[in-house]
Amino acid sequence: xxxxxxxxxxxxxxxxxxxxxxxxxxxxxxxxxxxxxxxxxxxxxxxxxxxxxxxxxxxxxxxxxxxxxxxxxxxxxxxxxxxxxxxxxxxxxxxxxxxxxxxxxxxxxxxxxxxxxxxxxxxxxxxxxxxxxxxxxxxxxxxxxxxxxxxxxxxxxxxxxxxxxxxxxxxxxxxxxxxxxxxxxxxxxxxxxxxxxxxxxxxxxxxxxxxxxxxxxxxxxxxxxxxxxxxxxxxxxxxxxxxxxxxxxxxxxxxxxxxxxxxxxxxxxxxxxxxxxxxxxxxxxxxxxxxxxxxxxxxxxxxxxxxxxxxxxxxxxxxxxxxxxxxxxxxxxxxxxxxxxxxxxxxxxxxxxxxxxxxxxxxxxxxxxxxxxxxxxxxxxxxxxxxxxxxxxxxxxxxxxxxxxxxxxxxxxxxxxxxxxxxxxxxxxxxxxxxxxxxxxxxxxxxxxxxxxxxxxxxxxxxxxxxxxxxxxxxxxxxxxxxxxxxxxxxxxxxxxxxx
Length: 500
Known about the structure:
Mean pLDDT: 92
Helix content: 25-40%
Number of strands: 21
CATH architecture of the largest domain: Alpha-Beta Complex
Strand order of the largest sheet: 9-8-7-10-11-13-12
Oligomer: single chain
């Protein structure tokens, strides 16, 4: 359903538009006499011509002033009739600001700021630069002239990120902490609140929800009242997506608040031999990497469901990580090793004697301000030199060239990062240890395993000598974390580990 509009003024602007996107309920005039037409034809309908007292009794979204020569007189007349200021606008404002764009008014913004305060929102992704559409060019939103006193400004400590598309004005730096040109630049970061405030077709709403799913706690979506998009969004299966919907009435639109309420955490302790593990919180789950149908040593294996357990002699703990990717659903997921565990200490060193193993509340608290937890980068020197010393120059060069060609074929945008991470980077996050949210984990695995498995197809394992050479794919797979991280804008939290 289109917006309900009252046009006010019999000037030329009334004929600048066919008004086919709106429902015109009346045409206003300052005075009515015997020469005033009773109706005007618009949208192939006869629209009544009314005075302000008659119009103020109608249900409408906006009064659009269509007589520029009488703008001041019409505006004052409408204001004296106690019509809200945000509903009285010019034709130019309606066309360039309201129709098909972000619909902004101070009263709605105040409700949004209250929501930010009440939900303890610390980080916002503003998809449509809603705050830049405000009446101020800074974060100050209090005590507007000619308006009521509004008590809430954009908080000084709120981290506000914007997406600008092609248009960017440097003055917006007074409002936003950072502005990106496209969503892809920060797609894996996590936000407390995603703002989708531009009126869109249904398919665009669905695409944005799907694209950003898992990367926010709350999403606030502005939808046109009575529209097909609103009706369809009300009928979506949110429960199946772990989303809790709440519909909020706004001034001229409807707001859909989505809350992502899945926060379960699982850390998998990767084991390849019997080991006496320390006492750990319940979120830790030991798993036998490379069990491959054997009896094992009493732990669940990585050989159930969809798995590549048989490749463990060649790709090491990556078989367990593949199993985690394909067979688990926890929102927060991570790895530990039978003798290596993250500890909650300052990362002054990459090894610690602490027994403060991470628990679920600590992990969730850390991931409020970070996107991934990694072992503190180890200053072991050039990665390439380490490989050459460990497995020999010629063997390493052969393996590197195979992986380089696979990356060129499968993920060519990462070739430069791959070479840089190996040859010029002097530290790295080792041992496939990480804790992150599901959407980050899925993105990494979706990138990593096509490369690893294709490299496995191009190497004849029957011709490789015993370890370490036969495990070259696992070692190179571990080294692939750095080039992947280099191409992301993830906020990294480094922690030391305890090595038993």
